[in-house]
Structures are given as structure tokens and as C-alpha cells.
TrEMBL record:
Gene3D superfamilies: Homeodomain-like, PAS domain
Species name: Paenibacillus terreus
Protein's name according to its UniProt entry: Helix-turn-helix domain-containing protein
Signal peptide: none
TM annotation in the entry: 15-38, 297-315
């Protein structure tokens, strides 16, 4: 039976395969994640162990440095050694005594390969291994060229004393006693340490997982390596070495591909010797039983997969039963039992339910269309017959008319185009009908973005429940359709004429939206709805004059504030009064500003575009934003006309200051008189263009000239202060030090020193 269902029924087969693939994917994912976590944890532990081992190794550098300093101090405390460094002659007897002393000291420190004494005055070199001066020629030349510190380090290869064909790898420590003492500046103590000795010191901490352990200096040159052939190799170009040298951390570990193999790199930096201890371990060597782990994980995964096959069969059989029972009740299945072709159960169910849904939608659309036609007949010139049919349904005896007005979805004046608005209106009407149908409501789209609702009620005033229901409808439409609607509620009506009047009241509420904003719910008040003219409504002409003045002076902050206050003064007017005042305001701006603009044509087009849009603004806030945008654009046009003149004035002031800076009476008042403008206006204009005050600019010019005089003349500071127009020398000192962070005398001394060093 299971085999027959797998081959014949597509849904059964898909369910079985889905269960199998799901369980297989989960098993594979869990196995891989566990294996990766185990390997990552192992690499982390090895990295920490290697880091701890290298930190112990880094102590070797401190020991080596201390021992080298001890040997140096011991040699410098010996009279024969000091005499050999200072001897200008070439006495063989003294050299023999020095040689014996060196051999005795070397025997005390078995880690030392050889010790050498170089006297630059008589050009002699003694070495405990018998290495000659000619063999050490390159080292001695480098010693003569360096005297910048007491301690120097050279990894190098030296020739054996008895054979020039053999060489040894050593780390040479050069001590220059003359750096701290009056000993001959060309004298030096050379201490050679075999790299094999250092490798033995650090190799004792090496673990089995480490493939290579070595030390590099701060330039990336290998000082000692577990592979002796790599001594003095430059590895600074290796990416992992560059990462280590550029890292600010004193120790750490990371994974990196080296020679095509994933490896764990651990490092510890030694501050005493500028050495970096590095260990490299191949990733595959960290897990010694890696293959066994992989095999075990694979066997467990296969076993779990076999169990999942049986589990998938059981789950598929039980999950498929509801679909099978549903198919048995359909007439199409028995007809197919006689043949052997495959069956797609979902296709059968989809076809059946599509036919049923289409029939239901057809019936629903016909009922909705009939209801809409009924509402339109009631509200658009019908007769009392339609109202009596509505009242005969027994839902009354009173009826409440409400109207939904679609707000602009994009926030622009006028909302969407006509086609989109018609579609949105029909969608909102259908959604409202579905939500309010249990309450006996009738809904219809009556055009121009308005949806009418007729709701039966039990009393002659709108109940709280009906208001809450419309608020919920408003929220649900916005949540599901992302359409904002403004709701207007009329009065309760018991007659046909009263119902039509109630709908007119509901639509009159939309005028309140202009003042209070979109997406709100308004109750109808017949007194407000008639919009009787107010006798005390006055146009705020004083506020208009302040706005025009702010535009001319380019006072943008004040401009926006004044427009907000102008809008506030017309907020209490009726809708028609507000629109009249807005038109009057635009006319006043055009009359006062258009003739003063440099670009009259552009400003005229701004006014023309605004007047075309003015009737499309849905709220007073939209109107205020558009007025601010228009005023700021007019402000920019006005600013363009004065920008050239302002730049010329500032350029003249700067040239005048640079020419007459030496005048002690130089001031803002004087400069303002030169350009025939007021002092305060010139000060604001100069600061706006130069981003610093006139006095700060004058002081900067004077201090710049003073610095030139201090550098090029021997005049006194008082004289230079007077030459640049500052008669108070103390004030000049204060300004100079505040501006340049040094005093005039310090500046002159510093400049003289720099000039002398440059020569």
C-alpha cells in the first residue's frame, strides 16, 4: 500500500521526500557543526598552550640579555681588558694576558661560543676561538660605523678559525663601552652565542603538535629556527609574519594557510630584545585521531538516516490521512481509481475549490452591486420608495449617515490620479461593507474619493458604539490597505429627506480636516456645517509685512517662525475665509517682492506654480509647508542678488587690512566708513563670509607679519610690536603666545636653531 501511494499520489510522494530530505539535512548539519566545534575547540586549546609555552620561551631573551650584560660588565671591570681597549701600542705580552682572561671568562659561561676584543686605535682584534681580524672585517667595519647605543645585535655566519670552508651560525652581541664611558670610541666587546645553544634553550618547551619553532627580529629576519637551514632567512614578506609585526598585541594566535596547508600560528613578543617567538602547527596535526573521528561521525550519521527513513514513512502516513479523507468525498477520485496514472491531489483540490470560490464571489459581487445601487439611489436623487424598502428591513427605526474621504497616500497635494483614486475608493468601500455588514450597514462609493455609509441605529442620536465602530473601521482600513481616510459623521435621521441631509452634514465635516489634519474622525454640528460668515475675521497684514521683511533680509529662521504665526492667526477662520486670506497673502508677496528680484521671470514662475496648487492642499499644515518652501526659495533668489556685492565688500576689507595693518587706530568703525556701511552690518557680513570676526582677522594678519619680522630681523620685540600696529607689548606677547603656543623670544630662538641646522 505504501509503495502504491508513493508511485501514484504526488502529494504523498512529496511529503515523504520532504521528511526524508529534512531529516537528512538536519543530521548532516548537526554532524558538521559538532565536528567543527570540536576541531575549533581543540585548535583554541592548542593555541593557548602554545602561547603559554612561548611566553616561557620569551623569558629566555631576558636571561640572554642579562647574561650578556653581566659578561660585558665583568670584562669592563677587568684592568687587563680595559687596558687592551685603551692600548695604542701592540704589545704581544699584554695581548697574551688578555687572551687568557677572555678564555677564563668564556669557560665560566658555557653558552658563549667565543669572545672578542677590538681596539680601533691600534686596529687589533683578539678572539678566544682564534678568529682573525681579516675574517671579522665586515663586522669590524659595521662596528666603526655605529656608536648610537651601548648594545647591538647581529645574527650572522662566521668562518671557523681553522678552516675557511666551514662556518657556524651565531648571534653576535656587540657592546660599545664608549657610549657610557671615556673608553676609546672605536673599542668594542664582541660576544658570539651559538644559535644551537639558543635553540636548545627554547626547544625544551616545544610540544608534539608544533611543526616549527623559531625567533625573528623586528625586521622579520630569522635569528634561530628549529630548521638550521633557515637561519637568517628573511620572512618579512610572509602574510602571517606581517600580521604579527603590525599587531599591537604582545601575544596571540590565529589560523592561516601556509604553503597551502591550514595552520595555527602562535606568537609572543619580547620587549627586552625586540624578538618575536613564533610556533607554527599544521591544523591537521592538532587532531591526532581526525580520521577516526570522521569515520565515527559518518557511521552515526548513516545510522540516524536509516532511522529517519522509517520515521518519515510513519509521519507521512499519519499526515496524509486528512487529505485522503477529503479526496474520498470528492466525485473525481472514484473515476480515477480504475486507471493507473498518477494523481495530483492538490490540483484536484485547487480546481474544486476554485470553482466553489468563483461561484461565491459571483453571488457576493451581485449582492454588493445591488446594495451599492440602493445606496446611490437613496443619496443621489432617488425617491422615498428606496428609503421605505430600507426601513422595511426592520433594522431602524433611525439611520446614521457617515462619509469616508480618502486622504492622499503620498502626502502630496491633490492625492492620487483619478484612476488610482477610483480603484482605492472601490477597495475601501468593499472592505467597509465586509466589516459593517453584520451591523446591517449599506456602503457605496459615491465618487471623488468619497465612500458613503448608512448605518441603522435604535435611537435618535449617534450612539457611542457606532462612533467606536467607525473608529475601528478607520484603523483597520489603514492597517490592511495602508490607506488613510477621514471620517465624517452626520445626524440621526428617520425620514428620507433627513437621511440625505445627514449625509450632507457628514461631508461638511471634511472642511474641518483642512485645519485639524488627515486621518481623523469628525462629528457633525449643523451650526458649523452651514459655515455662517464671521464678522470679526480680519486679515493679519502686520504679520505679512514681517514676513516680507525677513525675506528681504534673508532671515530664514525668523521667516519660518513668522509664517507659523501667520498660519496660527487664520486657523480660527472658516474654510472659505482661510482660502481667501491665503490668496491675498500670495498676492501681497508677489507685489512686494517680484519687482525687487534679479531673476524676475523665475520668481514669477514660482508664484504661478503655487497658485495652481493652492486649491489642492488638503490641510492647513500642507499649505504652511508649501508657503515656507515658497518663501525660502524667494529668500534664496533675493540672496543671489546681493551675494556678488557682499563678496566684493569682504575682498576690499581684507586687502585694506593687509595694506594698513601697521596703523594702531585700525578698527571696524574705520573699515565700515571706507565701504560706506554700518559697523554692525559690516561685522556680521565679514564674519559670515570669513567665519571669524574682524578683530580676529586683523590680529592674525598682524601676528603673521610679526613672525616674518622676528625671523628676518634683529629688531626688539617691542619694536616689532609697534611696527605691526600693537603699541602694548604685553598684549602683543599674550596674542602671539595664544596664537602660536610659544612666546616671540622662543620663536626667534627656535627659528635661529632650525636655520643653523639646515646650514
Amino acid at each position: 500500500m505504501i509503495r502504491q501511494r508513493l508511485f501514484r499520489y504526488a502529494v504523498y510522494r512529496n511529503m515523504f521526500l520532504s521528511f526524508v530530505l529534512l531529516t537528512a539535512a538536519m543530521i548532516a548539519l548537526v554532524t558538521v557543526v559538532l565536528f567543527m566545534m570540536f576541531s575549533w575547540s581543540t585548535a583554541k586549546e592548542v593555541g593557548k598552550i602554545s602561547e603559554s609555552m612561548l611566553k616561557q620561551n620569551s623569558a629566555v631573551s631576558s636571561v640572554i640579555r642579562d647574561q650578556v650584560y653581566n659578561v660585558g660588565n665583568l670584562l669592563l671591570s677587568d684592568k687587563e681588558i680595559v687596558g687592551a681597549l685603551l692600548d695604542k701600542g701592540n704589545d704581544p705580552v699584554k695581548q697574551y694576558g688578555v687572551f687568557g682572561t677572555l678564555r677564563r671568562i668564556q669557560s665560566t659561561y658555557p653558552f658563549i661560543h667565543s669572545i672578542g676584543i677590538y681596539n680601533g686605535s691600534n686596529n687589533t682584534y683578539l678572539n678566544t676561538k682564534g678568529i682573525t681580524k681579516e675574517q671579522e672585517k665586515e663586522l669590524l667595519e659595521e662596528i666603526n660605523s655605529k656608536n648610537t647605543s651601548y648594545f647591538h645585535l647581529f645574527p650572522r655566519r662566521i668562518s671557523a678559525a681553522n678552516s675557511s670552508n666551514q662556518s657556524e651560525d651565531v648571534i653576535t652581541f656587540v657592546l660599545l663601552p664608549s657610549y657610557y664611558s671615556p673608553v676609546n670610541s672605536k673599542g668594542a666587546i664582541v660576544i658570539n652565542m651559538s644559535t644551537s645553544t639558543i635553540q636548545k634553550l627554547i626547544g625544551g618547551y616545544r610540544n608534539e603538535a608544533t611543526d616549527s619553532l623559531y625567533v625573528i627580529d623586528d625586521s622579520g629576519t630569522i635569528i634561530t629556527h628549529s630548521d638550521h637551514a633557515r637561519f637568517m632567512e628573511d620572512v618579512s614578506q610572509e602574510s602571517y609574519v606581517q600580521s604579527i609585526l603590525s599587531s599591537a598585541a604582545e601575544s596571540g594566535y590565529f589560523t592561516r594557510s601556509i604553503d597551502g596547508r591550514k595552520s595555527v600560528v602562535t606568537y609572543v613578543k619580547s620587549k627586552e630584545m625586540n624578538w618575536t617567538f613564533i610556533s607554527v602547527s599544521q591544523y591537521q596535526n592538532l587532531l591526532f585521531n581526525m580520521q577516526a573521528l570522521r569515520t565515527t561521525a559518518l557511521i552515526l550519521a548513516l545510522a540516524c538516516f536509516a532511522v529517519s527513513i522509517f520515521l518519515s514513512i510513519w509521519l507521512t502516513h499519519h499526515a496524509y490521512n486528512p487529505i485522503r479523507h477529503l479526496l474520498d468525498k470528492m466525485s473525481a477520485i472514484p473515476k480515477m481509481k480504475g486507471n493507473r496514472r498518477q494523481i495530483n491531489e492538490f490540483a484536484i483540490l485547487d480546481t474544486t475549490y476554485a470553482e466553489m470560490t468563483e461561484r461565491m464571489r459571483s453571488m457576493e459581487s451581485e449582492a454588493f452591486a445591488a446594495r451599492q445601487a440602493h445606496v446611490l439611489q437613496l443619496l443621489n436623487g432617488g425617491d422615498e420608495t428606496a428609503f421605505r424598502r430600507l426601513a422595511g428591513e426592520g433594522r431602524g427605526p433611525y439611520f446614521l449617515a457617515a462619509a469616508l474621504l480618502l486622504d492622499s497616500q503620498d502626502g502630496s497635494p491633490g492625492g492620487e490620479d483619478e484612476g488610482l483614486q477610483s480603484y482605492s475608493c472601490a477597495t475601501v468601500a468593499r472592505a467597509a461593507q465586509q466589516m459593517l455588514e453584520p451591523e446591517g450597514a449599506s456602503v457605496a462609493a459615491v465618487g471623488e474619493g468619497i465612500v458613503a455609509i448608512i448605518l441603522p441605529i435604535k435611537q435618535n442620536r449617534p450612539p457611542i458604539g457606532a462612533v467606536g465602530m467607525l473608529e475601528e473601521l478607520q484603523s483597520e482600513i489603514f492597517r490592511t490597505l495602508r490607506v488613510s481616510v477621514t471620517v465624517g459623521i452626520g445626524t440621526a435621521a428617520q425620514t428620507y429627506d433627513g437621511l440625505r441631509e445627514s449625509f450632507d452634514y457628514a461631508q461638511s465635516c471634511f472642511r474641518q480636516r483642512f485645519f485639524e489634519g488627515k486621518g481623523r474622525l469628525f462629528h457633525c454640528d449643523p451650526v458649523i456645517a452651514t459655515e455662517k460668515k464671521r464678522s470679526d475675521a480680519q486679515y493679519p497684514d502686520k504679520r505679512e509685512k514681517r514676513i516680507i521683511e525677513a525675506i528681504k533680509l534673508q532671515q530664514r529662521d525668523k521667516l519660518e517662525k513668522e509664517i507659523d504665526l501667520w498660519i496660527k492667526e487664520i486657523r480660527d477662520c472658516t474654510y472659505h475665509e482661510a482660502m481667501f486670506f491665503i490668496n491675498q497673502f500670495i498676492g501681497g508677496l508677489y507685489k512686494q517682492l517680484n519687482v525687487h528680484m534679479v531673476k524676475n521671470r523665475e520668481s514669477a514662475e514660482l508664484f504661478l506654480r503655487f497658485t495652481r496648487r493652492i486649491t489642492r492642499f488638503q490641510t492647513l499644515m500642507e499649505t504652511a509647508d508649501a508657503l515656507k518652501e515658497l518663501a525660502l526659495r524667494l529668500c534664496s533668489l533675493s540672496e543671489e542678488s546681493g551675494a556678488v556685492r557682499h563678496a566684493e565688500v569682504v575682498d576690499f576689507i581684507q586687502m585694506y587690512v593687509r595694506k594698513h595693518y601697521a596703523r594702531p587706530d585700525m578698527s571696524l568703525e574705520q573699515v565700515a566708513g571706507e565701504v560706506k556701511l554700518s559697523r554692525s552690518y559690516v561685522g556680521k557680513l565679514f564674519k559670515a563670509h570669513c567665519e571669524l570676526s574682524f578683530n580676529d582677522y586683523l590680529n592674525a594678519v598682524r601676528l603673521e607679519k610679526a613672525r616674518e619680522l622676528l625671523a628676518s630681523t634683529e629688531d626688539s620685540v617691542q619694536s616689532i610690536s609697534e611696527q605691526v600696529g600693537i603699541l602694548n607689548t604685553t598684549y602683543f606677547y599674550t596674542l602671539f603666545k595664544k596664537h602660536y603656543q610659544i612666546s616671540p623670544a622662543q620663536f626667534r630662538s627656535q627659528h635661529a636653531l632650525e636655520k643653523k641646522m639646515a646650514q
